[in-house]
Amino acid sequence: MRPVLVVEDVRKYYGRVAAVDGVSLTIEEESVVGLIGPNGAGKTTLLDIISGVVRPDTGRIKLVTGEGEVDLTGRPISYITRMGVSRAFQIPNVFSGLTVLDNLRTALIASRRLYTRPTRSYEALPGVDEEAHRLASLVGLEDRVEVEASSLSHGERKLLDIAMALTTKPRVLLLDEPTAGLSAVEKGRIVELIEGLKRRGIPMLVVEHDLDVVFSVSDRVVAMHEGKVLVEGKPEEVRSDPRLRVAYFGE
Ligand SMILES: Nc1ncnc2c1ncn2[C@@H]1O[C@H](COP(=O)(O)OP(=O)(O)O)[C@@H](O)[C@H]1O
Ligand SMILES: [Mg+2]
Questions:
Q1: Rounded Cα–Cα distance for residues 65 and 70 (Å)
Q2: Of ligand 1's atoms, which has the minimum distance to the CA of residue 41?
């Protein structure tokens, strides 16, 4: 499989704490990489570095496209998003006073502004409504398009947040704890969505605490501990690795 996103020997110190301490990983086409590790392992910092929120002290982030490699290291969020890396958040990043459809319209209009010069009447942009409905259906919110985000369940807000991350047509999607705080039924919907997006060819890096979810959706799992990659491999290999238990529960 061809690599899509390559993280090379990335480091980030906060004072004397090495939040990320020499991490390398590759996300390949049509694959899901699960990123696990105890609290403080450096998972969110790594997502922050990839998505441009935080600049790494050393190391490289590269996107591999059909036209060649693009260096994303330390570039602005807008550039990284435009190049094709999109992110959904642990706390859904939606406008609670807007309906599902208006949230999607707003995100679509904002994402088009990444590519084109602003125009006066955004409502007139062709295709925005169709695309908003298409994305709502894709995440299973087609019956909820007229509902205000504030009235959605937590799980539905997560689905909407993922739909909003898809408005930029990403080449790679980063998900930070997509099932955190969800019921078993809601977790099932997120798992189905991740599997559906994978079938559509969107590679993903998924930070997730629920190990059952991670081991079921991931093609490969990377376990971090104290800023470093501790174990990496197929889900069943990582799951049975004794080092994982030590990292989570101590000796
Ligand atoms: N902005 C920050 N300032 C100082 N320390 C930070 C900051 N962000 C993260 N850290 C520290 O870096 C380490 C990794 O944190 P984080 O990436 O949030 O881990 P995880 O997401 O795996 O729980 C922790 O020790 C955390 O306290
Ligand atoms: Mg975190």
A1: 7
A2: 22
pLDDT above 90 coverage of the chain, percent: 84
Ligand 2 center to 40 CA (angstroms): 7
List pLDDT tens digits, range 56-82.
999 999 999 988 999 999 999 999 999
- Spacing, Cα 19 to ligand 2 middle (Å): 11
CA dihedral 164, 166, 170, 172 (to 10 degrees): 90
Ligand nearest to the CA of 38: 1
Q: Are residues 133 and 177 in the same domain?
A: no
Kindly give the number of the ligand 1 atom that is closest to the alpha carbon of 20.
14
116 lines ligand 1 (CB under 6 A): no
- Note down the domain range covering 138: 94-168
- Does residue 9 sit in the same domain as residue 53? yes
Q: What's the number of domains the chain is made of?
A: 2
Q: How far apart are CA 208 and CA 38, in angstroms?
A: 10
What length does the chain have?
251
Q: How far is the CA of 120 from the centre of ligand 2 (A)?
A: 39
Give the residue from 130, 150, 168 where a domain finishes: 168
Q: Read off the pTM.
A: 0.93
User: What is the CA(217)–ligand 1 centre distance, in A?
Assistant: 25
Average pLDDT over residues 207-218: 95
Query: Is residue 117 pLDDT above 80, yes or no?
Result: no
62 vs 99: CA distance, rounded Å: 36
Q: Is pLDDT larger for residue 113 or for residue 190?
A: 190
Tell me, yes or no, whether 89 lies in a domain. Answer: no
Last residue of a domain, one of 152, 168, 184: 168
For residues 106 and 164, what is the distance between their CA atoms, to the nearest angstrom?
Answer: 9
